[in-house]
Amino acid sequence: MLSKRLIACLDVRDGCVVKGVQFEDLATAGDPAALARRYDAEGIDELVVLDITATIEKRRALEDTLRKVSAELFIPLTIGGGIRSEQDAAAALDAGADKVALNSAALEEPALLTRLATRYGSQAVVVAIDAKRSEDGRYEVFARSGRTATDREAVEWAREAADRGAGEVLLTSIDRDGTRAGFECALTAAVASSVSIPVIASGGAGTFEHFYEVFTDGRADAALAASVFHFSEHAVSELKTFLRARGVPVRL
Amino acid sequence: MIALIDYGAGNLTSVRKGLAAAGIDYFTPADPDEIRKLSGLVIPGVGHFSATRAITAAWRMSILGVVECGIPLLGICLGMQYLFEGSEEAPGVPGLGLIPGTCRLIPSIVKVPHVGWNDLTIRKPSRLLADIADGTQAYFTHSYAAPVNDATVATTEYGGTFAAVAERGNIFGVQFHPEKSSEAGLRILRSFATISKSPHFQISK
Q1: Chain A within 8 Å of B148 (Cβ-Cβ)?
Q2: Model ipTM value
Q3: Mind listing the pLDDT tens digit for each residue in A125-159?
Q4: Are A168 and B115 in contact (CB < 8 Å)?
Q5: CB distance from B115 to chain A under 8 Å?
Q6: What predicted TM-score, i.e. pTM, was given to this entire model?
Q7: What is the C-alpha to C-alpha distance for residues A21 and B95, in angstroms, rounded to an integer?
Q8: Contacts of the segment B21-25: beta carbons below 8 A, 24+ positions apart
Q9: Which residues of B are annotated as catalytic?
């Protein structure tokens, strides 16, 4: 049976792993290559490296960091942050990434998803969507690390991105990010039931129970977390044991 | 020395790293004549089946020629599908036809593409899976899959049963990505390295 995936996210700034609360208040958490090795040994299914300052400073994702992270890693690795062109994607893939995640650039130029999917295959193209619940209950899509509102709605944008060639959706709840209050299952379920490509839920992981909720009520195919994994030893294997005991298929 | 065939279907960085980690000496030949004196061939690939059009008639003849001499061939993902007669993803684009059957779209009763870690059910003794336990998980990412037949040595369930690993004489194919399947994947690549170092035999016709 296809397993639900657990994905560790390394938010990297200036070569160091940091973790934000609602995208602000960054605190240093560790060396990305060391963390990557630890997660791999603990049985994480996949890694995402997000260069969180890349888009704002118009700086390309740190290829050096990527090379170090991917050097001894034999699980899928996704890079996000600053991928604005086919050249950026090519550089990231050459540095060891298997997939590139596009957020602001895809919103500005949706055709970029198609060009990358044509060149590298849809499996290498992830659309990253940061969404925030608005007062009328819609999920509004934000660009530029949650700073810029767009007129897009999350489900509609996810559908379009999938049609244009994205192979996965990395869906972050801005409201829940860094709060440890649980994933926003309603958002995840709305997107997951509207697209045929896998949906990775992100933002809000705090307890093992939260992962169970997002894999069941939230209909997520994968769940991504950062601090839950960063600050405790053996969290990955304990979480997998917990999920399997609750009937969620995971890779042990 | 093993030849890694680069026909432009996706990025090969991870495959290169995986082969190196498995202790495989490889190079990427620029010309089909360069593959004649090698101990093995790897055909990787991701994306649309029509990408295999980039494998020209000269390359096809060269690949089929060395395979007929008993040189081991490993197809990975799209490279495995290319071992078959073709794929309904690109009707009219021929595969190598080394294994009978046509690759088909995964039924839409499940999410397509199939992305993630799934179980290998071992069906037959296999040289490629010599160090792999039944039920081992591997990382898949694909929308089309190869049919189960006599050459199938391991299957996976997703919207039905498909051939996850095919093996016939010196011809091997894996639908998943061994270079992305952690330690189990590297063991499979090491097995291929061992096979390619052992004396080759002529396959019976």
Answers
A1: no
A2: 0.91
A3: 999 999 999 999 899 999 988 889 999 999 999 99
A4: yes
A5: yes
A6: 0.93
A7: 51
A8: B21/A72, B21/A74, B21/B186, B21/B189, B22/B186, B22/B189, B22/B190, B22/B192, B22/B193, B23/B190, B23/B193, B24/B189, B24/B192, B24/B193, B24/B196, B25/B1
A9: 77, 177, 179
